[in-house]
Amino acid sequence: MILVTGASGTLGSVLVPLLAARGERVRALSRRGRDGSVGSCEWVVGDLTDGTGLDEALAGVDVIVHAASNTRKQGKGDTVAAWHLIEAAKRGGRRPHLLYISIVGVDRHPLKYYRTKYEVEQAIEGSGLPFTILRTTQWFQLLDMFLGLAAKSPVVPMPELPFQPLDAAEAAERLAELAVGEPLGRAEDLGGPELLGTRELARSWLAATGKHRLLVPAPLPGKVGAAFRAGWHNAPERRVGKATWAEFLAAEYGR
């Protein structure tokens, strides 16, 4: 049995049906009630923020894919949520394989959200559970969301930063492989196939969506800006992904 946290999120919503289609028994954790079971997938209610429902959710589980994260609030509460999950996973002498999805560069990047992801990594590494941590570069779907938010203004400040976007579906494919394998500790990083600047990403997104916005050069100051310019969030030596940004835009917007 594989338990997936964050089952209704960007990654989880792809991963859960993928695992089920491969014949795996899947339990999807949600804070809100869903219909109990669909095929080999069972939805259960639990809350990582306070640990309620986790003992029931973890009963009979061999593998946990921890994909839940508070992205809207820069990872607020993620470390506490991870500890609740770890403590529940270990109760009764259980030792499930804990698989965590992280981000390239979190061990040295000063962005608050990245530092929180690294704290969660460290909690998992010190948990005593068999574990695998997979770091990926930024997903198309999140860049699409960020650009959509930025485009609410007719003038969009845009620093020039390098990104290596990846399809979340490809991250889900790799997680599905890891979930049925032996714990690896740190798995090899997973990066997208191309390095693109933010202005190129934004211009192609605007063309695909048919929006007209003025992109204005803008600096990103401080240590965070320096880290992004240095590309610490990228893995150019691990261009494993196949889908390109242009292909994602064409599929998403039909242009």
TrEMBL record:
SUPFAM superfamilies: NAD(P)-binding Rossmann-fold domains (SSF51735)
UniProt lineage: Bacteria, Bacillati, Actinomycetota, Actinomycetes, Catenulisporales
NAD(P)-binding domain location: 6-137
Organism in which the protein naturally occurs: Catenulispora yoronensis
Pfam families (UniProt xref): NAD_binding_10
Origin superkingdom: Bacteria
Coiled-coil features, chain-numbered ranges: none
Name recorded for this polypeptide: NAD(P)H-binding protein
